[in-house]
């Protein structure tokens, strides 16, 4: 499917260089235990699948500088499609001494999961990640594909931890209903306008998934990725170099969404706390963690910017203070978020049956970022050529303002960035003229303050984004209306005290969160996920000698029929409290106690009593 082109082929892998003062190895000790990332649905709530299918089983020992592990994939013969839902279950275990590692799983070059590992203990740790992968169904249906996993690890005299990984797919032929399904009157009317011939691509509107899938999976997914010799991700080492791939798109495509996967490492692992280069130079510091604290990942088609994202700051398990992330890892560390970029308004550029260059780059990025994307395409089965044209294209540059003031090692740095854009384009399909308008914008603020001769560092970051996608038909009637709002604030305060024997003591206080609201027709989903950590550690080099830490996490998931919340508290590597409920706490306060609500927080009429009350934002 076309040729790939990556301007930088140099893969620089720096597992533990001296210039990474904020990446550490946890002390050994502790009993064998399970690590986890808090999310929805809890595994106890998953119904039994129609069949399970093990697709990968491999041990990652000294894999650095080796090609990724590849194994053949075929769908299960025991439960043929159509599937109403597919869940990927990633199981890993490890024992010994090891750093955290980045990893990814690709099927025919299409990324299914970006993940990072937890740092093991002498007694051993294990964890399970569940991810709904129904959106990749068109690919999961195909036999004779290669499944590839990259996890570069170092095993030698010092580092003994081998990561043993098993990946299983759980297929559901018929959605096993546990949560009562409440049909959405509006959604039932706004069924996908394209009449589909094949049964597999029927609308999922009548079969709600846990993730609230309100649309059918794409018919075709094309990877925008590297050639796979060193994993399918592109390595971005600097701002000026973008990576790209030439692809050809079927001429009957009527919808396109690009799903972007990113992770940041090396000198940009903590990009949100990088000072400007002027500060580093003036103080004669030898760190390469510079370029200020703003990054933006962008996507281009034939050189024109068509999408962008300021990524959520995922903290890996060795990051900032490894004692914070055991046994509950930081938000997104096991299941890194991917970002959807609606490209339908740009179809007019690419439906000519010719090759087009899709590129990905990082504004202000320094070594190194691992980026690639999946291009999800929906095809009009009743026509061979869809005509498309852009109508409005308003995309100014991101406005970025920077302020800095410093004297010696103390100072204050401010960055404000924002962007508002609108794109409109139409496609003539067998169902008529569909016009898609995407309006989106974000605001980003980063404030950094260094005090007490640079030993007290405060980072406060705010990010807010909104996106609206509206599709109307030829008569001007609304077909789709999607609204997404996201916020991810972050605050990190670090106080470092250095001792004569070369050890130092770091006291840290972190809070970070994700608040997300997704509205599509009458389907509403909101997630509020917040984590606070406090503690100290004594460090020599990159090894933590001792310390104390506590983390609390409050998670809530609310949609039309479900209210789920979980509050967990961990201290010094152990869970000290773990409360979860399917009752809407805030509803309990606002509505009189009634018999009509069952344990799922749903009343007998079948509509949620708490919709819109949980999140005031
Ligand atoms: C499709 O609809 C848009 C507006 O909704 C209009 O501007 C465009 O001309 C239409 N295209 C055709 C080929 O009629
Ligand atoms: C500040 O730190 C620098 C480098 O660590 C050191 O050389 C200098 O003496 C310190 N200044 C004060 C006032 O402590
Ligand atoms: C979670 O909720 C508890 C009790 O309501 C509160 O004490 C704690 O600070 C919260 N933690 C976070 C991370 O929001
Ligand atoms: C969990 O519930 C118990 C009892 O209701 C309460 O004492 C504790 O503070 C709660 N913990 C969290 C983390 O919310």
From TrEMBL:
Q: Point out the coiled-coil segments of this chain.
A: none
Q: Compositionally biased, Polar residues: which spans?
A: 591-610
Q: Where is the Peptide N-acetyl-beta-D-glucosaminyl asparaginase amidase A N-terminal domain?
A: 46-388
Q: Where is the signal peptide?
A: 1-19
Pfam families per UniProt? PNGase_A_C, PNGaseA
Q: Where is this region: Disordered?
A: 590-617
List keywords of the entry alphabetically. Signal
Q: Would you tell me the protein name for this molecule?
A: Peptide N-acetyl-beta-D-glucosaminyl asparaginase amidase A N-terminal domain-containing protein
Please name the source species.
Answer: Flemingia macrophylla
């Amino acid at each position: 499917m076309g040729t790939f082109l990556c301007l930088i082929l140099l893969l620089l892998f720096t597992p533990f260089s001296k210039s990474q003062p904020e990446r550490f190895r946890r002390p050994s000790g502790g009993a064998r235990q399970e690590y986890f990332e808090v999310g929805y649905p809890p595994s106890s709530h998953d119904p039994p699948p129609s069949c399970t299918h093990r697709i990968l089983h491999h041990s990652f020992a000294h894999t650095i500088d080796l090609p990724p592990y590849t194994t053949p994939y075929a769908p299960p013969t025991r439960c043929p499609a159509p599937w109403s839902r597919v869940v990927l279950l990633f199981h890993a275990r490890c024992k010994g001494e090891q750093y955290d590692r980045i990893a990814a799983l690709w099927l025919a070059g299409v990324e299914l999961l970006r993940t990072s590992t937890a740092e093991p203990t002498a007694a051993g740790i294990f964890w399970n990640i569940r991810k709904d992968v129904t959106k990749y169904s068109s690919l999961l249906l195909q036999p004779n594909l290669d499944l590839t996993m990259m996890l570069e690890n170092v095993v030698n005299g010092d580092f003994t931890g081998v990561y043993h990984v098993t990946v299983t797919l759980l297929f559901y032929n018929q959605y096993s209903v546990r949560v009562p399904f409440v049909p959405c009157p509006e959604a039932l009317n706004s069924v996908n306008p394209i009449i589909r011939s094949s049964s597999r691509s029927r609308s999922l509107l009548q079969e709600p998934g846990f993730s609230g899938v309100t649309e059918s999976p794409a018919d075709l997914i094309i990877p925008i990725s590297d050639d796979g010799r060193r994993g399918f991700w592109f390595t971005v080492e600097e701002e000026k170099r973008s990576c790209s791939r030439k692809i050809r798109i079927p001429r009957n495509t009527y919808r396109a969404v690009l799903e972007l996967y990113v992770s940041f490492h090396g000198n940009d692992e903590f990009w949100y706390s990088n000072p400007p280069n002027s500060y580093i130079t003036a103080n004669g510091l030898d760190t390469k963690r510079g370029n200020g604290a703003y990054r933006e990942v962008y996507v281009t088609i034939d050189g024109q910017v068509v999408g962008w994202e300021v990524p959520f700051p995922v903290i890996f398990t060795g990051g900032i203070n490894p004692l914070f992330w055991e046994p509950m890892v930081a938000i997104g560390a096991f299941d890194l978020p991917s970002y959807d970029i609606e490209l339908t308004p740009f179809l007019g550029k690419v439906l000519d049956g010719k090759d087009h260059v899709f590129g990905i780059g990082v504004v202000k990025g320094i070594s190194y970022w691992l980026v690639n994307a999946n291009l999800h395409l929906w095809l009009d089965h009743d026509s061979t050529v869809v005509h498309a044209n852009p109508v409005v294209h308003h995309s100014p540059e991101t406005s970025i303002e920077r302020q800095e003031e410093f004297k010696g090692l103390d100072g204050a740095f401010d960055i404000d960035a924002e962007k508002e854009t609108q794109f409109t384009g139409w496609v003539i399909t067998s169902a008529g003229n569909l016009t898609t308008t995407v309006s989106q914008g974000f605001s980003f603020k980063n404030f950094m303050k260094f005090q007490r001769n640079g030993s007290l560092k405060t980072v406060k970051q705010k990010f807010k984004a909104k996106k609206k996608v509206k599709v109307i038909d030829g008569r001007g009637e609304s077909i789709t209306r999607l609204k997404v709002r996201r916020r991810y604030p972050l605050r990190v305060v670090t106080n470092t005290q250095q001792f004569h024997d070369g050890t130092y003591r770091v006291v840290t206080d972190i809070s970070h969160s994700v608040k997300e609201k997704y509205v599509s027709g009458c389907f509403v989903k909101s997630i509020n996920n917040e984590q606070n950590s406090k503690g100290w550690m004594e460090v020599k080099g990159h090894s933590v000698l001792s310390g104390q830490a506590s983390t609390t996490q409050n998670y809530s998931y609310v949609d039309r029929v479900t209210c789920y919340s979980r509050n967990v508290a961990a201290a010094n590597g152990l869970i000290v409290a773990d409360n979860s409920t399917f009752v809407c706490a805030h509803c309990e306060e606002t509505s009189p106690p009634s018999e009509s609500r069952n344990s799922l927080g749903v009343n007998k009429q079948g509509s949620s009593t708490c919709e819109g009350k949980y999140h005031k934002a």
